[in-house]
Amino acid sequence: MNFTQSFRLALKSLMTSKMRALLTMLGIIIGVGAVIVITSLGNGMQQMMNQQFEQLGANLLQVQIYNFGGLSSRTVSPDDMYALVDKYPQYLSGVSPYVMTQGVVREGSEEFTRTSIYGVSEFFYDARRNQAMSGETLAKGRFLSYIDVSRYQNVCVVGSYLEQNAFGGDALGKTLTINGTPFTVIGVLAEKADNSEGSGDDVIFLPYGNAMRLNGTGSVDLYLFNSTSKEGSTTAKGIIENRLFQTYQDDNAYFVMSSAEMMDAMNTMMSTMMIVLVAIAAISLLVGGIGIMNIMLVSVTERTREIGIRKSLGAKRKDIRGQFIIEAGTTSAIGGLLGIGVGIALAQLAGGLIGGMMAAQMGGGATFSAVPTLGSIGIAFGVSVGIGVLFGYLPANKAARLNPIDALRYD
How far is it, in rounded angstroms, from Cα 158 to Cα 144? Predict the structure, then answer.
């Protein structure tokens, strides 16, 4: 028989016992479906994170200074960082201290205890792009100015959650208190998360000097720099590291990372995690291959007389072997196709559920799309067919080596 005849015979054999064939394919279906779902969700998450980093800009550099519990006498001040920007305007375009603080926010008798409070400078917000270094955009009013920061003025910019729940949708010019200190609202941020308590919309930005006073500290541990270009971010990073080393004389006292490096590190971590998860899911393919081998061994036993008749009519070993390998490959191929359909359906379902929650939390206009790539589908299908052929070889070889006389006598 040629390939076409063997393929038709394989389909006829599968149709004869549909339930047995389905159970045989189950491991392949689950394995291929799991691989497609995992790769689809992983690709969607990776794309969503890349969108977030792109919105922040490839020019952003984050500088973390380790104060070692305040034991070190070596420090750099915000003025030192401003001086560094003024010294290298061709590489650095701005810097903002980033002071995180905690406090009780009140408006009248209403209290907000989960609000995130950040102290920043006027460089934290880029008016040309209407975007802050952390991705927020301004919806109403204005952001902090140089005068606000230099004179420690008690003004702030609030998120959409506070505007709606503390001021009934009209926050501009109103006053709230942080640990008893009154602050006037001069700007309102656009909604970026799900506008719930404790979310990315429940935030306040105020001058970093005021935030330091609320913390009762005189040092800043985190700075955000902007380089003049993506290509110059590496040089800008070196400039910052050299300046910090002059003060601390210790590479472990600080950490500088660009947004491009953060994106690469995140992508590497996601790729590693996806490889591990796909490897775990591929175990189902191995189980499916064992199932195919088992059912093909049974098939060889059931069709012993058929094999004897074919050999007595002149069929060679390679003909018998090829027939059963084609049957095993056909079984795994059909299972792979069913697994692809199941995987795509589950990926779209999971993407709709998980993506909605993630988009609401991360905000910033990011979208989540769990769509499998043609590459992942092709690899999953190819591996499923390969496993069927590989595990079908042993039963096929057993069938090919049967003695025709013994096969004809088999009852």
Answer: 11
